[in-house]
Every structure is written in structure tokens, then in C-alpha cells.
Request: fold
Amino acid sequence: MLKQAIFQNFRGLNRTSDRLNSPPDFIYDLLNGFIKKDVKSNLGVVTQRDGSAKFNSVQLDSDYGTTKKIRIMFEAKWDGGSTDVIIRAGTAWGKFDGINTFDAIDTGRADDAQGQCIMFKNELIMADGGKLRKSTAAGAISDLSSDANLPDKSDCVWVHRDKVWTNDLDTPMLAVFCKTNSANGATSWTGATDAGTLDLSTVLPVGDRIRGYRTYGGSDSGMIAIICDKYTVIYAAGANVYTFTFVQYFPTTCLSINGLAYVGNDIVYPSRDSLTSLIASYTNNQLEVKPLSNYINNLWRDLIRQTSDTTQIAGVFHKKLNHYYITFPISNNYQTLVYSADIGNFVGRWVYPYEIYSWCERIDGTILSGSDGYAYTMNTGNTDEGTTVSWKMAMPALYLGSAVNYKKPIEFEALVQGTTNLDMNIDYWYGIASLVSDKVTKVINIGATSSLWFGPDVTAWDNGTTYYIGDVVYDSGISYVCKVSHSGYEPPDTDYWNVLVNAAFWDVAFWDMQGNTLAHTSDLLGRGKMMFLEFRNNTSGAQITLEWFRVGFSIEGVN
Reply:
């Protein structure tokens, strides 16, 4: 009798051990795809990622022809409502001209430095290892302040409780903040009033180095997280905005401040052993740290081990998709992991034909990535500037209900959706004792059927003439294009035209070009105690979604 094994709720990646004992409802690897929550079934569905397109076609030319890595990206929004995309590359800060070019706005800075940006009182403040710099909406650039107490060497900046916070690289455990609502005046950083410092060397048991700041527990919170290499320290503001009280510290490593992001009110950042999450619970007055990478610990540690400069790890949270992207700068093998807040797990591993050094979420939710002189817009099109997005999904070892018996798989069936005609490759092989059988490849064509939402034609207009979809009709020299919907459509001038739908029709604007295909085959070959399955799509311009699959098999003996 043929038995069935159905896989229909994918729960993300699992690398806690290896492929032999990973649970079958997880995926061992998912290249250039991710698992999303299906709104109809609430199940995890596998889908191929979208492509990307160049944001600028002309590079920021800071060194007269030398391509420079875009180390930071930021979108400034000015009081008048306009926005500017800002980058840090080479020895310059650049601003997008709105067409195709990043123009230099501040030059002669340290080469290839990481930077940070914030907005404060309608000024853009830039940190890159020297004195803090500022830009007005009109593009005037200068040092932030002439105050002698403004540090000469700062590479981080943040706004908390009406103050700008920065660091002093000559005193790496000193947190520095300006006067309330003032960062650019002649005495804004002088501590005689409410400007001041917090010396972490009086709190932490060992030496450390401040990497950056974040408001902790929501935008209206009085607590600030001072994030260092080895520790994260929490201070809380008192009734006065210049009074800060030590609350707690956590022995966590922050490998890169540019890998840090807000996920809701939570703060996440890469540490050596895990993706670290800082959580505040006001109800029980509890502050806690927890890892978010439990399911992929082995993979996480391996990527960290291969990253020669962990300070260059970059991350961003995509609010529209509830995804956190984190990129590991591994030489010739940049990897981006995708964490889904909906599923609570890492749900994909992405690679691009270019290396990613920085991320930016724009105000409209668009995600930009920074590469060698070029920025790219995510989730646009189905190729990476013409390069095929190759998708692969690898399952763990499938024991099909028994680790003792041999199984002979016979049938395979899957519900697949494709944007165009494509070939889905199914690679499978078996574990036989300590050996592994040869891999077999099965190719199944997935057709993008054009399902008609309505049927073929006809509509009658009030003058008795029959028109078809797309026909142009005239009244007093004004043209109207016939666009009848299933419920009827009235052109702008309803006194002259009244549309009655007499029958269903074929409206090309309502074609469904993502047809579902029930892929099925009954000629699987081979046998074994475990089965390995991988799925591939390498068709240019084609994307695939896998809803579920099943394997039909017969049980055999134990020998």
C-alpha cells in the first residue's frame, strides 16, 4: 500500500545540528528565497525573492575614478517635506541628485570610514571618525559646533531626550551629550549646564569601546542603550533631561553597530554567538537579553568565523515585510540572512551578483543596498540587473515515518506557482547504510497559465453600438477608452455614456499570469532509509512559489 508524507508548513531554517537530524518541517537551506506566512492558510509558504535594480548609474567620484564602497546610506527628511539619500563612500559624503548621480557634498574625509547619520532640528549630522559635521537643507556643510568640548574624533551619533549623543575615540568609554535642544552652538558641549558625559569605566569591570547608542524600549522611553564591543549599558533619564541613572549592563558582544536595527521596539544586533535581542518589559520592570538565532546557531557561528572584519556586518529591518536582513562580508562569498518577525526564525539565505556593504530603509519603505559605488533598489523586477536569481531549496533527511525501514518513493506531487513558464529541477538521492546513492534529477515544467477572470466580450453602450475592451469612443471631441469591469464602468462624463454589462468578457488587465500548477510524477527511482530532496529554479526572469509537496512511498524491510 502506498503511504503519503505531506510537507505543507515550513517553519524556517534549521542548522542546529546537521541535515540528518533536522526536523522535517524545517528547511535546511533556502537560497535566494524566503518563507512567508500565507494570509489564507497561516502556513509557511516558500517563495523566490524578487530582483534588484540600480538606483544610481553614476558613482560618487571621490578619488577621481577609483570605485569606493558605499559604507553608509541614510535618508534625510527636511522640514519642508523633501528627502535626500545620503551615502558615505571613499573620502566623501554624497547626496543623490534625484536622477542618476551621487554628488559629493563633503570631501577630504578619512578614506573608507564607516559612518553614522541622524537628523536633529532640521540639520543632517554626520559622524565618520573626525569632528561631527552638519548639513543644512540648502547643502551648507560645516563642523557641527565651534565648542572646544565637541570631541575631535567621533564615529557614532544618536538623538535621545532632546540631546545629541556621540563618543570620543581618544576616551573610548566616555559617552558625550550636548545641551538640551542644542548641538551646534558655541557652548553646546560644555558641561557647565546640562551638557555632560557618562564614564562607563566606573560601571564596567573591564575596558570597552562605545560603538553607538539607541533609545531603549520605544521612542518615548527615557532609557538609552549604550552599545559597546563587550557590553551593553542601560541608563535612564530622570525628571531632568540631563540627569541619567545607571540601570543595568549586559555582557553581550556587538560586532557591528551597522548591523543593529529596531524590530518594533526591540533592538537587535549581531554578537559572536547569536543575533542578540534586547527586550524591555515595563509591566514587570524586567530588562532581558535573548538570542533570535537558536535554529541556526551552527550556521551563524560559521558565517561569523569566515568574516574577517566583523565591524563591516550590515543590517536593516524592512517594516513592510517584517524582515530583518543581515549581510556577512565574507571575501568573494557575501551572504545575507533573512529573519522573519512573523515566523520568529531565519527564513532564507540570499546572495547577489554584487557585494553589499550597507543597507537603508527609506521613509516610503523602499530598501536600498550599497555596493561598489552603486546603490540598488530591492524587490524590483525579477532579475538582478539582468542576472538570473537562482533559487534552491534543500530539505533535511526525510525518514518518511521510519528510520529503520527502507522506503521506495514512487510519487511526487507539489502545488507550485510560477510567474512564467519554467523548469523546476528536483534533485533527490538516498541514504543507504553509510553510503549515499547517486543523485537523480527530475525536471518538471511549470506553466504560467493565464486564467481568465471573466469570459469573452460584449458590452452595449447607450447609443446601441457595441464596443470592445480597448476601443476608443468619442463625444464632442473627447476620447474615452472602453475599460469595462465586471460590475460596469461609467466614463468621466456620465451624462453622455452609460455602460451596461450584458455578458462577461475578457479583460486583459485582469489576467492572472501566476497560474498554479499541480506538478506530479509517478516515476521516482531508487530506495533507501532516508531521502534527500532539493528543488531548483534557474530560469531567467521566472520566479517560483512552492505551497506544499508530498511524497508517495512504499515501506520495505529493514535489510
Remarks:
- Residues 297-306 form the longest helix (10 residues).
- The domain at 113-360 is CATH 2.130.10.10 (Methylamine Dehydrogenase; Chain H).
- Confidence is low (pLDDT under 50) at residues 450-464, 474-479, 483-513.
- The radius of gyration is 29 Å.
